Amino acid sequence: MFDAVHLQTFVVTEEGGKSRMASTLSCTDEGAFKTPKNVRVKSFVSSGESPITIPASPFMKKLGCGTGVNVYLMDRVGKLNASPWAVKKINSKCATKQAVVYQKRLNEEAKVLKGINHPNIVGFRAFTTARDGSKCLAMEYGGEQSLNDLIEKRREDGLKAFPAANIEKVALHVARGLQYLHNEKKLLHGDMKSCNVVIKGDFETVKICDVGVSLQLDENMRVSNPNMEYIGTEPWKPKEALEEDGEISDKSDVFAYGLTLWEMMTLAMPHLDMLDGDGET
Q1: How far apart are CA 281 and CA 268, in angstroms?
Q2: How far does CA 92 lie from the centroid of its chain?
Q3: Active site (annotated) includes residue 3
Q4: What is the DSSP letter of 51?
Q5: Mean pLDDT, to the nearest integer, of 22-33?
Q6: DSSP state of 181
Q7: Which of 97, 119, 170, 257 is exposed most, by the fewest CB atoms within 10 A?
């Protein structure tokens, strides 16, 4: 089913006869869906005079939430043909100590996202201060629902695995996004899962989101700083992330990517029977 996606390391020959080692995750275009060309959008970073005005949370539709953050839909009223933005803000109910940690992650995500430009990864739009004084990260609106939302709905409706065409499209487009992160940006996503894949319409677009816990990779595709912690989410964590001296590499993302596709086939959370009853997912 997934002939367009290969999870292996191999030598590829570029124009001019030069060869290089490809990432563990690579993909081809043969018989695949065509990835739309990415469109560059002017973005803004917070300074004292940012032209971006983001309303307080109560005036925006809540799209969802994550660890310590809420995500809202911001309609850009008054701007001709302006697409909406997804705005991520720290949950105001977080304890001060936790809020500091989550704010640091949000700052890091803004920094990383600003340097990324790929059609299968949500784009950076702004990092600024809302009217209520909270720091917030404005991003491309990647879609109405996460892949996890669609999996849960399908399970609740008593349906079986997603159609092969949907699974193939997610497989290919997420693979392209990860390949870009690994090969071009030398970044490990660090929390690959169905919750961090957003879908627009009937699988019209597929985009990776939430790069706030990404880690830098070295030339050997291993995490360059051994003191950096792999955050991840337990059901999707690879074996090396659960071991005290496990070596984290691009393969850690590939493992979680495989489990994300497995979710689409089984409509189940991976390793659910191995989780402690009190554990966070």
Answers
A1: 13
A2: 23
A3: no
A4: S
A5: 45
A6: I
A7: 97
Tokens of 116: 């990324």
CA distances in angstroms from 74 to 3, 55, 168, listed in the order given: 39, 8, 31
Encode pLDDT of 172-212 as tens digits: 999 999 999 999 999 999 999 999 999 999 999 999 999 98
- Which residue do the tokens 């309609």 mark? 75
Of the residues 29, 191, 218, 245, which is catalytic? 191
Task: Specify the long-range contacts of residues 181-184, CB closer than 8 Å, at least 24 apart.
Answer: 181/116, 181/121, 181/208, 181/211, 181/214, 181/253, 182/23, 182/24, 182/25, 182/217, 182/221, 182/250, 182/253, 183/22, 183/23
What whole-number distance in Å separates Cα of residue 223 and Cα of residue 95?
31
Q: Give 223's contacts (C-beta < 8 A, 6+ positions apart).
A: 188, 215, 216, 217, 230, 247, 248, 249
3-state helix, strand, coil in the chain (%, to 5): 30, 20, 50
Pair type for strands 124-129 and 135-140: antiparallel
Regarding pTM above 0.90, the answer is: no
DSSP conformation class of 60: S
Quote the CA–CA distance of 141 and 130 in Å, as a whole number.
18
Contacts of 6 (CB under 8 A, 6+ apart): 26, 27, 28
Q: Judge whether 82 and 76 are in contact, CB under 8 Å.
A: yes
Contact 120, 176 (CB under 8 A): yes
**CA distances for 63 relative to 78, 111, 141, 142, 276, angstroms:** 22, 23, 10, 11, 28
